[in-house]
Request: fold
Amino acid sequence: MGTSTNRTRAGNASLEQAVEDYDLVILGGGTGSTVAAWTFASQGQRVAVIDRKYIGGSCPNIACLPSKNVLHGARVASYIRRSEEFGLFTDGLRVEMPAVRARKRAMVMGLNEMYLDQYKRTGAEFICGSGRFVGPKTLEVTLSDGSTRLLRGSNVIVSTGTRAALSAIPGLTEARPLTHVEALELDHVPAHLIVLGAGYVGLELAQAMRRFGSRVTVIDHNDRLLHREDDDVTGALADLFGDEGIETALNASVKKVSGRSGESVMLDFEQDGRTTTIEGTHLLVATGRQPNTEDIGLELAGVQLTSDGYLKVNERLQTTATGVWAIGEVAGTPQFTHVSVDDFRVVRDNLMGIHRTTTGRQIPYTLFTDPELARIGLTEKEAQAQGIAYRLFKLPMEGVLRARTLSETRGFLKALVAIDSDFILGFTAFAVEAGEIMASVQTAMIATLPYTTLRDAIWAHPTLVEGLIPLFSSTPSSSTDIPAQVLEAVSVNS
Ligand SMILES: Cc1cc2nc3c(=O)[nH]c(=O)nc-3n(C[C@H](O)[C@H](O)[C@H](O)COP(=O)(O)OP(=O)(O)OC[C@H]3O[C@@H](n4cnc5c(N)ncnc54)[C@H](O)[C@@H]3O)c2cc1C
Ligand SMILES: NC(=O)c1ccc[n+]([C@@H]2O[C@H](COP(=O)([O-])OP(=O)(O)OC[C@H]3O[C@@H](n4cnc5c(N)ncnc54)[C@H](O)[C@@H]3O)[C@@H](O)[C@H]2O)c1
Reply:
């Protein structure tokens, strides 16, 4: 620990500078790596986190939490529009985006203060600056005043995350499209927002902006919204978007973009052999992510990349350089905050000599449209592709009494249960507060409880989770490839 003078190569220039030694240096402070910093520092280790911009990384600053904050505002707008349904009469709705943004900014500021306080309490050091490797386990940080520091860690974690990818469509970059970062900072409602990409970011923000009053068109080159999900899910999402007046152009291949987002922007796309031009005022790009692995000196540290530019890691999240670990999206981890936190657990245990891997993790997720889509385990598509026979329990939300009290009966619950046991293989809720309903089913799956435990539990009335009783009491249908004699045996035994 402490400092020593060392000769290190930074690019072509050799520099002589005091190296500060740490037990752990973290490049990029996303959620998982921030928790790592706090954890190791509170155990007495000397820990530094280098981040060029964000205290706590993307999630609390530009991604999950600010987007959910803005989405909630849009949900309130939707309630106000529906107010007469609840016997409430208002004199109309005026949306002030600067105030929407101010609420979001205040939340982010509060989160930043909370994080800084936690840094102080644990003794981890947050260094605001841009970092790059200049040698094995050694990083140079350039601070905002242009000065530099050299940090060397007994262990180093790389957690530089990803950024919005811009497809190689002629004119796209020049049109200066919004990404989620700018979309969450808008001080006005776009007159006509074109959303390129019908994935998580695109769908959540499309619905929110529509509810704030924007005309919205969603374009995707796949033929369904959120195309990896089962057809009943993507169909229900399409119905929802249709009912809310969101236009969609699917199976659409964008050939050219012209104009400028924020003023007037045109997209030429081919669909069913025809070329169409659509014009909007704003363009949001939500077509996936690209890893932040360029220009950070990985080659000087012996850290190799995969063919698509992510860090090459093993199932213990070790990179190809000894003592250099990876956490989060930059390691190719599924792109959710809760999985980056589990990456932290994997690295933590391995650093403590406990073997823990990323293999076979069960990963839940929730799309925060309204209603939400919550998913865990196998979809029907996945079960069929893997030749896994299942019993399918499905219940429309009209069958959940709590949903009726809320006038939120859109959607359904469905569960896949093994044909040869009562274990739950997968669960989907497209429903109000779906993410909360899923948690109970996930707990049963973690504990490998049979579905009958959920069916036979006494749930408080009237709650949404109580819907698991009618769901699991319904008569299941079965996947087509289940042999008749197996089905017969199941029905005889049940
Ligand atoms: C709009 C949006 C909404 C989302 N909503 C959800 C959600 O509801 N739920 C969910 O689970 N997930 C959500 N996600 C995904 C989630 O944000 C990420 O999976 C999560 O933040 C994990 O990111 P990470 O730790 O890999 O990296 P990040 O949190 O992105 O951290 C990487 C950090 O590295 C820093 N950095 C990069 N290069 C350098 C460098 N050279 N020097 C110094 N610092 C550097 C960056 O400034 C950044 O702070 C959302 C994503 C987006 C875009
Ligand atoms: N609620 C959440 O948990 C949440 C919310 C937002 C983001 N995220 C995470 O962030 C990740 C990134 O989100 P995202 O929406 O950017 O990516 P995504 O992978 O979810 O969706 C990208 C979409 O863009 C489409 N696409 C790609 N290239 C295209 C092109 N050239 N033309 C037209 N369509 C194109 C794809 O078909 C896909 O539908 C998500 O996968 C998710 O893991 C999670």
